[in-house]
Design a protein that fits this description.
alpha/beta, FAD/NAD(P)-binding domain, 19 strands, globular, binds flavin-adenine dinucleotide, 3 domains
Length: about 500
């Protein structure tokens, strides 16, 4: 991306999530006149902050993975993460409690992780080393070919055969089949598959190439920014403003209307016309709620037929006293998690015996809880579209707290000083997420790589998408890169002739 290639272009961005803020910084650096409209009173999107009674919670993401991508983002503006926040590498990566009473720490050091695997199954230590070597190769090929330098959809298709011929990438078969080839013990299979939930998928519907995720946690490490993910969001907003972007909060866009002069954006009673609009709101919501009918070449059925990643039942708990033995990241897993995934993707229902995740950032960072207290966040992945009225939430909350006490020995009842929850309808109403998915379009085979919705809205020039529902996909690092990709697409459209545009399709 060169400087000033977009001088004179007025660009509106709808939404200040990770993708919107990244796009704002990159487009601003390229010389565009950027205005970000965010409906909430804060930036960050699902990565917001909840505060009360001296506790501070990250509302959404809590695993800071792929630190190199954050370095790349800040580096593009001659900054580095350390200018804004202190990063700590966690060890263990996480702790697991199974419902049969067993527990394990997955260490940051891969050699120690191999020992842990060996202790469950003879030969599994070596199998892990082989698996991680393959995962590393898949990660490097995947990043180089599909993720970091934007390859247009056209070029991606041309290069797909080359990429697949490389050892390590496979679109054939699911993660479940692939992992079963390496590990016999069901618990070991879980330990290398749990990261699929980050992609909004399950072992049964995610292609085997996503073994690369094991390199992300075992190889690259799990980090935490002191102060929480909100520090990263604040840093991104600072960088975007430094690059000249204006960020307006409490500014809900109610319509995007094509006109002869560009795209008109309606916010409250105000209207402004921009050369281009980048929507960080989900493309499904943008096309169904903000654009006039028929404005894009995509049928309404398209969005009905997609596979959406899980929604989440989130509990934010400010707790008095300690919560030993919970770690910074703790997974509580049934030994058979098949029925839980089935309740998300096959037969949507509230799970009876859920797998869930508990985050206690105050274990690492005392600034997020008052003295003698802990900040606890529980995330239970659940099916999008579920009814989540107050009675249902209350009953499920009680079920989870009872399970936590039984499975980890940590009884929180009677010492909760702050409590909030978020569920399906909050993601739908607050963020425009289709069916209330928390994560967006799952990375199933037909929603991966070039098959994900493009950065360019089909059939409507000058409208673009950025964020987790477009390329490269779900997660903070991917959304950071998405802002870079959409900027490249806009630069190609502004500068390019017809051939560039064809290649950029
Ligand atoms: C509970 C949870 C846990 C997660 N855990 C992790 C994790 O540990 N690690 C990780 O890397 N990723 C994690 N993720 C995924 C990651 O957080 C997301 O992929 C990423 O933050 C999504 O960013 P986005 O750019 O798609 O925008 P979003 O966060 O979806 O933001 C879109 C923005 O658009 C705004 N908007 C929508 N409509 C309008 C409108 N009409 N007018 C104005 N503004 C509008 C919304 O208010 C919002 O601010 C998690 C997600 C969730 C929900």
């Amino acid at each position: 991306m060169g400087d000033d290639e977009l001088t004179g272009e007025s660009i509106a961005i709808v939404g200040a999530g990770f993708g919107g803020l990244s796009a704002a910084a990159h487009l601003g650096a390229a010389g565009a006149d950027v205005t970000v409209y965010e409906r909430h009173d804060h930036v960050g999107g699902v990565a917001g902050r909840i505060e009360g009674e001296g506790f501070r919670f990250d509302a959404g993401p809590s695993w800071y993975l792929m630190p190199e991508v954050f370095e790349r983002f800040f580096g593009a503006f001659d900054r580095e993460p350390g200018d804004f926040y202190e990063l700590v590498r966690l060890d263990p990566n996480y702790r697991v409690f199974w419902d049969d009473g067993d527990r394990a720490d997955v260490p940051a050091d891969p050699a120690a992780a191999a020992e842990l695997f060996e202790s469950y199954e003879p030969g599994a230590g070596e199998a892990l080393e082989t698996y991680l070597a393959d995962a590393k190769e898949a990660y490097e090929i995947g990043m180089e070919r599909f993720v970091v330098p934007k390859r247009s959809r056209f070029r991606e298709c041309l290069s797909l055969d080359v990429a697949l011929s490389a050892r390590g990438l496979s679109l054939i078969g699911t993660m479940d089949d692939h992992v079963a080839d390496h590990f016999g013990h069901p618990k070991l299979r879980q330990l290398v598959q749990y990261t699929l939930v980050f992609l909004g998928g399950s072992p049964y519907n995610t292609p085997a190439l996503y073994k690369l995720m094991s390199h992300v946690d075992y190889g690259l490490g799990v980090y935490y920014p002191i102060g929480g993910i909100a520090e990263v969001v604040d840093a991104m907003a600072t960088v975007a403003v430094d690059q000249g972007a204006r960020i307006e909060t409490n500014a809900e866009v109610s319509a995007i209307t094509p006109t002869a002069d560009g795209l008109e954006v309606t916010v409250g009673d105000g209207r402004s016309v921009h050369d281009r609009v980048v929507s960080n709101a989900s493309p499904a919501y943008t096309e169904r709620e903000l654009l006039p009918k028929g404005a894009v070449d995509r049928s309404a059925d398209y969005w009905e037929e997609r596979t959406y990643g899980p929604s989440a039942f989130m509990l934010y708990l400010g707790v008095e006293g300690d919560v030993d033995p919970l770690e910074h990241h703790t997974l509580v897993l049934p030994t058979d998690w098949g029925p839980h995934f089935e309740s998300i993707f096959e037969e949507p229902r509230w799970p009876e015996n859920p797998a869930y995740y508990v985050n206690v950032p105050s274990r690492t960072d005392p600034t997020v809880a008052p003295d003698g207290c802990e900040t606890v966040v529980v995330l239970v992945p659940i099916a999008p579209g579920l009814e989540d009225g107050p009675d249902r939430r209350e009953a499920f909350r009680d079920r989870i707290l009872e399970g936590l006490a039984a499975e980890t020995g940590v009884d929180l009842e009677g010492r909760i000083r702050f409590e909030e929850h978020t569920c399906v309808s909050d993601y739908a109403d607050g963020f425009g997420k289709p069916q209330g998915t928390a994560l967006g379009l799952a990375h199933t085979l037909r929603q991966t790589g070039p098959l994900r919705p493009s950065h360019r809205a089909p059939g409507l020039d000058r409208l673009y998408y950025v964020g987790g529902d477009t390329g490269p996909g779900i997660g903070m690092p991917m959304c950071l890169l998405s802002g870079e990709h959409v900027t490249q697409a806009i630069e190609a459209d502004v500068a390019g002739g017809p051939l560039d545009r064809l290649l950029a399709q």
